[in-house]
Amino acid sequence: MQTFGAEFAVPPGYLNTPSIGIPPSHVADAVAEAVERWRRGEARPSDFDEPVARTRAGFGALIGVPAERVAIGASVSQLIANVAAGLPDGASVLVAGNDFTSVTFPFAAQAYRGVKVTEVPLAELTERVGGHDLVAVSVVQSADGTQIDLDRLRAAAEAADAAVLLDVTQAAGWQPLDLGWADWVVCAGYKWLLAPRGAAWMAVHPRALERATPVAANWYAGEDRWQTVYGLPLRLADGTRSLDLSPAWLSFVGAAASLDYLGSLDLSAVRAHCVGLADSLLEALGSPGQGSAIVSLDADAGKVAEAGIVAGTRAGRQRFGFHLYNTPDDVERVISTFR
Predict the structure, then answer these.
(1) Distance between CA 94 and CA 121 in Å, rounded?
(2) φ, ψ dihedrals at 167, nearest 5°
(3) For the whole prediction, is pTM greater than 0.90?
């Protein structure tokens, strides 16, 4: 299908973007071409510096921060581990109950040195910030698409002098974002950013840089990456790049192409499309819209599959995600399972 200026080979009924996003054809082609160069022995390590740099700029543009603030990695949990390891002994972290564990586990793993993680219902999070050193939360919840009130969170964190870490994995790509105020913003690329798995990013506010520990210090994070491949002393780059992980090359080739594409779109129009479909589904079933691209329903998984729908099962419910390549026909397919 052709939509939003790109071609997608997505079958009707694919509503599983919160698990795996489907790339535009030109993004998949870019990865295939890189595989062919690898197959023919034409690839060189330095060839991949340019696409990595494009992804820093592309991700930064999506969340409203400059490219120099962006570190690269392979997964959200690996990037958050740098933040968790940098917490002082006995620090207090506030998280939302039932948030995705890549957000919470890196902090819980610090319990041996007294770091305390407190779970509260998402609806209460902004009222419970006081007394905590850090708040870590997904902007859009993976299980059901519920969103945190970012303005209230920012105000509460500033009043309590608490740092804020945001996971935008289920938000970036369909939701316009302006998060330059947050201490850390992390994201995996293989869902709404339509990139291969193995590319992830973390934007770091300058005030927060010294509070992170490079737990996976490596040659790629060196001050001159092609001169830090052997021997001591430790000589990491100044700034956010000190937190880089050596990139999964093919993943970043695809991510560069997908972020270039998403960066060319009007994200307000993208949000209107995605949320419009999701809310129309809820309204057709007698519920108010929730302004999210993700919908969670008590639906019969067997009927969902029989209707030709690909969805996820999360927290005992069927989860449906609406992205660029979804249409009103997909909404009708879901509605049909309730008849």
Answers:
(1) 11
(2) -105, 120
(3) yes
pLDDT in tens, the chain (339 residues): 999 999 999 999 999 999 999 999 999 999 999 999 999 999 999 999 999 999 999 999 999 999 999 999 999 999 999 999 999 999 999 999 999 999 999 999 999 999 999 999 999 999 999 999 999 999 999 999 999 999 999 999 999 999 999 999 999 999 999 999 999 999 999 999 999 999 999 999 999 999 999 999 999 999 999 999 999 999 999 999 999 999 999 999 999 999 999 999 999 999 999 999 999 999 999 999 999 999 999 999 999 999 999 999 998 999 999 999 999 999 999 999 998
Instruction: Give the sign of the dihedral formed by CA 232, CA 234, CA 237, CA 238.
Output: negative
Buried b (16+ CB within 10 A) or exposed e, 46-59: eebeebbebbbbbb
Distance, in Å, from the CA atom of 274 to the CA atom of 293, rounded to the nearest integer, reads 5
Residues near 262 by beta carbon (within 8 Å), at least 6 away in sequence: 58, 62, 173, 193, 194
Q: Is 227 exposed, middle or buried (0-12, 13-18, 19+ CB in 10 A)?
A: exposed
Structure tokens at 46: 């330095």
Q: The tokens 């192409």 sit on which residue?
A: 257
What is the C-alpha separation between 53 and 199, in angstroms, rounded? 12
CA distance 132 to 161: 9
Helix (H) or strand (E) holding 260, with range, is: helix 249-263
Q: Which amino acid is at 195?
A: A
- List of residues 6+ apart from 306 with CB closer than 8 A: 337
